[in-house]
Amino acid sequence: MTAHPAPATTPAGGTPSGPAPVNRLRPRRSCLAVPGSNPRFLEKAQGLLADQVFLDLEDACAPLAKPEARHTIVKFLNEGDWTGKTRVVRVNDWTTHWTYRDVVTVVEGAGQNLDCIMLPKVQSAEQVVALDLLLTQIEKTMGFEVGRIGIEAQIENAQGLNNVNAIAQASPRIETIIFGPADFMASINMKSLVVGEQPPGYPADAYHYILMKILMAARANDLQAIDGPYLQIKNVDGFRAVAGRAAALGFDGKWVLHPGQVEAANEVFSPSQEDYDHAELILDAYEWCTSEAGGKKGSAMLGDEMIDEASRKMALVIAGKGRAAGMQRTSKFEIPEA
Fold first, then answer.
1. Do the beta carbons of residue 116 and residue 86 sit within 8 Å?
2. Rounded CA gap, 33 and 203, in Å?
3. Low-confidence ranges of the chain (pLDDT < 70)
4. Alpha-carbon span 23 to 5, nearest angstrom
5. Which residue of 15, 30, 74, 235 could cross-link 110, Cys pair, CB 3.0 to 4.6 Å?
6. On the CB side of 59, how many CA atoms lie within 13 Å of its CA?
7. Is 40 helix (H, G, I), strand (E, B) or coil?
8. Which of 230, 236, 225 is nearest to 256 (CA)?
9. Tens-digit pLDDT profile for residues 57-104
10. Alpha-carbon gap, residue 92 to 98, rounded angstroms
């Protein structure tokens, strides 16, 4: 999780004197996909150490199974134990005839036990606004807190990527921008059948531009950026390599499709113990050196390293990720001798 402050926005439909803005920056190192039509998987997912679980009504549900899956999801959200997890439901995209009923059934039935709605195949800001308005109407009708339920926007084609900045600004409910590689690869005719892997014949990273554009839109609007799935579920080394690429750029997490990928995602998107300790030491040292007792200096030495305001900002990112992961410090800042 990044160390950005929570967006200073009023919840959709609320007022400045209403409820405090929701903190949209939840841990999302591992985002576990679970078919909404499979009770056995829904039961098992509750015991896994994923930061987020999204119950899927889209690709993981056959068309004939979708109506019943809505009610299955409501039951498991209300009766299951999702402690410590961000609870998300992925509905179908707006070009289908299922979307409005997905949202109405799930939110009316389990809105108080739901954190976000994930909207796939987002192509324009207007599609996010439509979901925001529908959520607001349901919340007002049901007496829920207006604006609490977030939106996760999934970018899955060229049109969506072209409009990603407007999509990121479309609603104060937006929490994440997600890369959907499978549909995206198909939409641009990428020469590969292995989702998340590099296409043959291209010597560089074919996804770099896509990931960076999503990341820039997310960071410019204090949102999180999440990488999509890696479908070779038994190839954990391959998963780690692809996840490491996104983590190195600054992404906050990645989808996981199998329990075997959860631990790898949590590890890859958390800082090492050494980096976490160093970041916390930088923050402590900078706070001291800029204080009255520390001489009100703009920079100082931490061992052999000079630190300043830029160092503090970089350390905040690493420290924020470590704190979100529940890491504990193994070192302590010592005030230097005069």
1. yes
2. 31
3. 1-21, 193, 338
4. 9
5. 74
6. 12
7. helix
8. 230
9. 999 999 999 999 999 999 999 999 999 999 999 999 999 999 999 999
10. 6
